[in-house]
Amino acid sequence: MAKPKVAFYWTASCGGCEEAIVDLNEAILDVVEAVEIVFWPVALDFKRRDVESMADGELAVSFINGAVRTSEQEEMTKLLRQKSGLVVAFETCAYLGGVPGLANFWDRESILNRAYKEVPSVVNPKGILPKTQTEMPEGKLVLPEFFNTVSTLNQVIQVDYYLPGCAPPANLIGQALQAILEGKLPEKGSVLAPDKQLCDTCPRRDSKPEKILIKEFKRIHELQTNTERCFLVDGIICLGPATRSGCGERCLNANMPCRGCFGPTAPVLDQGAKLLSALASIMDAKDEKEAQHITDTIPDPAGIFYMFGLPSSLLHHKRGRYL
Ligand code: SF4
Ligand code: SF4
Fold first, then answer.
1. Which domain holds residue 221?
2. Mean pLDDT by 10 residues, the chain (323 residues)
3. Probe residue for ligand 2, chosen from 220, 243, 245, 306 as the CB with the greatest number of ligand atoms within 8 Å
4. Ligand 1 first shell, C-beta below 6 A
5. Contacts of 4 by beta carbon, 8 Å cutoff, 6+ apart
6. Number of structural domains, the chain?
7. Same domain membership, residue 170 and residue 54
8. How many CA atoms lie within 13 A of 323 on its CB side?
């Protein structure tokens, strides 16, 4: 019997999630045994025309990691959607926008100006910016369009399942592959990770008191942290109350607070707003002035609240002059 055909593709991301597949270790041999990988540009020499020549729906599943930042990424994700039975948003950049999505605090013009004109190490006296088409003596040079904002995968194509994590842990990847191969997938649109808050599975949860009161927030390097106490007790911002579990509590076990890479649980519409509400409830302020003082001690609030999910949030991108 023919093996199901599988594609892996990489858009706006750091590439670490491609390595997460290799993190399956020996289990990758079982994957190769069970499926036929027919497109994986980061590891094997396949071309776009190989996908174009496939019949619609010929791919059993495409795992796409990364957000959508350029016209080339948009074209490729649409092409893979057309050729695939299932599309899995494979990691948090595809699912929520991820760290590349933080660029939505700026627009295309300010990013290009910064990168090509303002950075002190750049020498560009004519202020030339990249163009989608440039006539050269050798012919026309064509570059993809750099969009004004970063989009999540499901803002561009229909996505069937979401596998969260920066990067997704090997056990969740293995479970997802098994569920696909056995046809035991949950309802379409599901996130393939437990729908439980990270605080519920955190090894420090028993040290989290019923009521926490904070006079100021601190950065992790400002304190000698207790390796067993809930970070919030010491005023260190941890995104556990606004984050889905399933990562294996990786950061917490390394004595670092959670930064929210698994995204929110299903009922939460906006991870940043959920964290804001959790932090507001522990601020020990008698009046507005004190509340302002405590708020001012939150380091990089926009970056912390939306480190992994700005494009999927209610904000999506910079609005007017307020951000
Ligand atoms: S806030 Fe962070 S450290 Fe505290 S219980 Fe939740 S996940 Fe654990
Ligand atoms: S602890 Fe938080 S940031 Fe770290 S891997 Fe888990 S979900 Fe991601």
1. 198-305
2. 91 89 80 89 91 97 97 98 98 97 95 96 95 94 96 98 95 91 93 96 91 92 85 95 97 96 96 96 94 94 95 88 49
3. 243
4. 198-199, 202, 204-205, 208, 230-232, 238, 240-241, 252, 257-258
5. 34, 35, 36, 60, 61, 180, 181
6. 3
7. yes
8. 18
